[in-house]
Design brief:
Helix content is about 30%, strand content about 20%. The protein is of the alpha/beta class.
Length: about 400
């Protein structure tokens, strides 16, 4: 709605929960007025609501897939089948089977000349694009190390109330359950892994790491710390760290070190904090270069590019690189959860799927994650857990 390039209108909405759909419709209508053209008969509820909403579209229209990644492959395949363009949020899928489903649908989308954008908006940051060009031109020398951190407090999951519908309750707490959104690390840290892969202009060949879990009140499936070392074909490394304990140092940034000097690539909450430094010290007194200030938000720019591709029939399909960045995130998560080195080839070939019945869920389906007598859900135990 905020992007330039011609008028757009919202014509259908879908959700599992009526109160969420109604609240979204009210908020959007207040902000955008008659550009929100979604009468009650085009507001759909239920696990099959995505089909009814997409069926309202014409070829050339855009389906926005903004629910959690456990449902992304199902919704994306249907949108491509109906020959509509797609914007889909990150993450792409929670497991290797889902990634391959999305990759296959992405190839079909290209064959049908459909345009597909994903929610890894930092790829559309002009500041980051400027630094990438500097790196490709040799300003840092050979990239030796990428360091990325997202360390922030994450509240624990409390017990489910007796009258809460178990399946719906898990979906309402998406980042707490691996089948819904891949877990907190996966859903939040894919941006940093994508930045690492962009900086290296490559995909990692292996990952290993360690994690930690607070033995306290959290009932979810998440660990509370992840530290992953990625290895690339040339032997260089990428380090990605997530930590979610309270009362700890917080950091949200990506740094890159070359043989000549270092740079900052990203700042807190995806801020375009982009700088080249004189040496390996990343401090204010060592700044040697900064890009021009961004004039357009990457969240808007990603839509400008998509709408331009649709209106002017330019090739545009971000599926492959986004799915590969997601697979790299899954590799790292699996390495921590299993306590093993996970290779790219293992991840790509894996038949692992958290919820094989995701396409056929109904309100009467059993919840994929099952709690023990104390209300705790299964957590990964290295040496015992497998998800590749």
């Amino acid at each position: 709605m905020s992007a330039p390039g011609g008028p757009v209108k919202l014509v259908a909405m879908a959700d599992l929960f009526e109160q969420r759909l109604s609240a979204s419709h009210k908020t959007l209508t207040k902000e955008f007025g008659d550009r929100i053209d979604v009468p009650p008969e085009r507001r759909f509820l239920g696990f099959d609501a995505y089909r009814k909403a997409i069926d309202c579209l014409r070829p050339g229209d855009v389906a926005l897939l903004t629910t959690w990644s456990g449902f992304r492959p199902t919704h994306f395949q249907y949108a491509v089948e109906k020959e509509v363009n797609v914007f889909m949020e990150k993450s792409i899928a929670p497991d290797p089977v889902g990634i391959r489903r999305v990759l296959a649908a992405g190839e079909t989308a290209t064959a049908k000349n459909l345009k597909v954008s994903t929610g890894l908006m930092c790829r559309h940051s002009s500041a980051r694009q400027s630094l990438i060009q500097q790196i490709r031109d040799g300003a840092l020398g050979q990239v030796q190390l990428v360091r990325a951190y997202r360390m922030e407090f994450r509240p624990p999951l409390g017990p489910r109330k007796a009258d809460d519908h178990e399946l719906y309750w898990q979906i309402c707490n998406p980042e707490r359950f691996l089948w819904v959104a891949g877990g907190y690390f996966h859903d939040r840290t894919i941006h940093l892994v994508d930045e690492m892969c962009w900086l290296k202009d490559a995909w990692p060949v292996a990952a290993h790491g360690i994690g930690a879990r607070d033995p306290g009140a959290d009932l979810s499936q998440n660990l509370d710390a992840y530290s992953i070392e990625y290895t690339f074909t040339d032997g260089t490394k990428g380090m990605v760290v997530g930590r979610y304990f309270a009362e700890c140092h917080t950091e949200f940034a990506t740094f890159v070190h070359g043989t000549k000097c270092a740079a900052q690539f990203s700042g807190s909450i995806h801020a375009p904090t982009v700088r080249i430094h004189k040496n390996q010290r990343i401090e204010h007194d060592t700044i040697a270069w900064e890009p021009p200030k961004e004039q357009v938000s990457p969240y808007v720019e990603e839509w400008r590019v998509l709408l331009d591709a649709i209106r002017n029939d330019r090739p545009h399909n971000e599926v492959r690189r986004s799915a590969y960045s997601d697979l790299a995130t899954i590799m790292g998560r699996a390495a921590v959860h299993s306590g093993k080195i996970i290779t790219w080839d293992q991840a790509m070939a894996s038949e692992f799927q958290y919820c094989p019945e995701v396409d056929s869920l109904t309100p009467d389906s059993p919840a994929p994650a099952r709690a023990d007598a104390a209300g705790r859900y299964p957590i990964p135990v290295p040496g015992q857990w497998s998800e590749i």
